[in-house]
Hints:
Elements: E1 3-10, E2 18-27, E3 30-41, H1 42-48, E4 49-50, E5 55-56, H2 65-81, H3 96-103, E6 106-108, E7 114-116, H4 129-143, H5 149-153, H6 158-163
Antiparallel strand pairs: 1-2, 2-3, 4-5, 6-7
Amino acid sequence: MSKSTNIVFIKQNKTDKDGTIxxxxxxxxxxxxxxxxxxxxxxxxxxxxNPNTKRFKKDKRFPQYELINQRIEEHLTxxxxxxxxxxxxxxxxxxxxxxxxxxxxxxxxxxxxxxxQTTTANEVKDWxxxxxxxxxxxxxxxxxxxxTSSEIQNWKMLEKCVKL
Length: 164
């Protein structure tokens, strides 16, 4: 089945005069959504949002259109980095380390040891030095440890990072 992604407007109550903009994904009749944390008035949504372009129309009566369109674009770009899977996008509520625990594929072997697949930075889509830095900081904070620069530089595979 195909997956559809849309920008939607959701009010908390029918009587509300404003609502929140969400990215909604539908796949196999299962709907997931993620807020882009922008509220607009019902009238602004009805008058200025173009469902074909998934953006707000340029209009002097709605000066924040550019900022909102930029935010929509950022969220759609982020979504594409995660294979258009809304559930894979880490939220502020989740710890960064929990997100990477899912990314590091592991399977239990006999006994208590864990066998990790060897995943290199080149195999992680859109991995860069900033992501590497965020991972190091999150690991140090989570485990209350400090890595030496030589340890960090020797991380060629996620397996080595996990072993530390």
